[in-house]
């Protein structure tokens, strides 16, 4: 396995006590594989990724348990120095907001070239050539002319390509993309997602795609981990999950998508709100919103039951959910 | 559910990881509503409607920082109005023979370089210093924030002209300006000094007020009010002012201390208050040459100045926090 | 928009409803200036550049398009937050674009807005009661003073919030609840038209459906007309009776939801529809996507002729010379069924297998 996250726990200190952002997350990605982590805001999907990258804000955040193994090395026990070496060369991250993730006062060529200068000690001239090559690779037209431009001179889609180029610079084995297309228009989103999928194939990288968009997931993912209140509630290969969800939350999400034959009727809506991370309900975190909830759901935290070889569901009644 | 917006931690958004932050506290806050469906303090559903100001007042009344600073300020105002209440002596009665003497019975703070009683002089100096501090701050804050708010809100030509004017004011060296302007004044009251400080101080508040009004103006709630047909006055007073006032309060309370010291500087240079007037500034500047021999003569008026400034800063902080519902 | 002798499309409500809003030739240009004190105009951002539509009573018009297409500016123009450079907006037959003062205030009662971002559209320093009650303070004639608190509580109840929450502040609510507060404020004056600018795109997926359902219920209950602006095409289809697709300041195609979604004839609509990720992994293999090249041009430098030609896969020489008119394309003029709808393309044609 390229990356394995096991039973990860992350807490945030807040004014009103500890917020349990991640409560035992386990997932794994292999080279050449795309894992989609699906969840709403506050589900812990981004925090998990930050912990993996080692860029969690500490304090207030703190990893309180678990392991993160990258190429069989536990990242949590690494020294900051060693961890930094893995960032960039081993794994890289693409952020949602490319404009604020790029430095506005440096040209994109400088920022791309810096990756080579810092990590590889490449000369200024060579790193500029590398920067142009990278920009070509992410299909930025007229790369040689635009290498001296500043981030604000690029459109949103082009900026996201530059972010991707930066992530690719040192040819990492794993890319974590946190809502890479949420800020983009649909026609541009399609371009960027295509590019990402293509580059993943080309470099045989692992890709973790963090998103809230079921459409994007269906389009590019191999397998999915659905997160809710800091836990994985369901993992499955993409086709199976869409066909027969094994958790009522996943089921609710799928049903609330507006469909043609539902026009003029009420949309299915999951009732209630996501829980506060300071006060996650006892038992199954989803129980107050769950149409299938019974007494046991209010007392016992469901483990991630094995549904089949590759599937897991953290629902006491996954069988019913799968059938119903 | 894009999670880009985090109402709580703008710093984080600025830091620009763009990661939707650690977590979305908005969602978590929501559950507090479920947890405590009704607060015990109202008499059922018909409890009185509350507003920002009434809530702020309720909050302040329970805030020890506010109570303490308010107490100190009330006391200062009291002795500024009736200094003889606690210091019956005459501040102008001095005995050179006792110059620089230490504390003695009946003279708890000792004597200054001219043999005047430091206690009496400190208490009587409060009037001039507090008047200069409070009046100058009020004047600066009023003038600066009204002009700044109007310029920020309406923009256009007036904004451009006013902003250039403030640039010119920033270029005037305060002390030199004071020497020139105040040397032509003959009146020995605090008012020329107050006027001078207001004249030179307003651009600072103007800039801050203008900036925060421009920020507040861009929020959708201003558009929402406009779509409802709200007038400009209403938008400025109800929507923009409460959201733009915090930085003005902070800067103004800090400036208050500077103004009291500025009066001291000007008095020291002979263009502020002149003897026989009494003020902390005059005391501090008069005592500074003998600070090695008679530190007490400097310590007491300087201490009074520090306590005053601190009290106003604490008051400002408390008021600012009370006006922010998120901090309750 | 008058289309004589056109067979009614199946999904069209029985006969055109009585029009509430009629928009003709709406234009909004923002001047681009240089200089600080002495400004001179060096160009214009053509945010909205000739938009026409009619909104019937109780109808929902969905407006879709990418960022920079002018859809939000249209919303602002409809709510009188901006003054149009040209064109008219008729409310119940009366041109309201040049109104000011009391007359404008009266019209504003009837056209209200729901904003995209529930975090910035509510004043953080006002209680929920004050926010929802503010419309009554601005329009005292709408409710007698003693009645206002009761009305505010009623409104909270209508949008599905606990009426006890009047004394709370916006930050104590989640995004979905705040959006409900925003909707309650919009409803306070009993408007006829609600302009909703991306009302659910800032919300969590599991909450979006709740808000959409609420908007639909309110529409039935209060006979509201909606202009529903969004970029999420599936939500727009769900809620809209008619849909207008905007590109660079103009409507390029408009029709009923079936006409637009199942029989698009404008290449931009086709590309837009094909680019939307479908939440069905089975569709991955046999999807026929049109991936457009490049980005939307700047509205400050609009291409000549057809605005879409710089990214269009059908563009020919003629497209640079001729501005296509928004009308039923010639080849479909006598056609029956859903292909015959307005499309501003010189080479409008149905494309099979779009999704």
Model description:
The complex is a heterotrimer of chains A (324), B (328) and C (355). With 324 residues, chain A is an alpha/beta fold. Chain A folds into two domains: 219 residues, P-loop containing nucleotide triphosphate hydrolases (Rossmann fold); 77 residues, no CATH class. Chain A contains 13 helices and twelve strands. An eight-stranded mixed beta sheet of chain A has the order 6-7-8-3-9-10-12-11, sandwiched between helices. In chain A, β1 and β2 form a beta hairpin. The longest helix of chain A is centred in the middle third of the chain and has 18 residues. The radius of gyration of chain A is 21 Å and the shape is globular. The mean pLDDT of chain A is 87. Chain B is mostly helical. Chain B has a single domain, classed as MetI-like (MetI-like fold), CATH 1.10.3720.10. Chain B contains twelve helices and no strands. In chain B, 43% of the residues are buried. Chain C is of the alpha/beta class. Chain C has a domain of 239 residues: Rossmann fold, CATH 3.40.50. Chain C is 27% helix and 21% strand. Chain C has ten helices and eleven strands. In chain C, the strands form two sheets. A seven-stranded mixed beta sheet of chain C has the order 6-7-8-3-9-10-11, sandwiched between helices. A four-stranded antiparallel beta sheet of chain C has the order 2-1-4-5. The N terminus of chain C is likely disordered. Chains B and C meet through α2, α9 and α10 of B and α2, α3, α5 and α6 of C.
Short description:
The complex is a heterotrimer of chains A (about 325), B (about 325) and C (about 350). Chain A is α/β, with parallel strands linked by helices and about 325 residues long. Chain A has 13 helices and twelve strands.
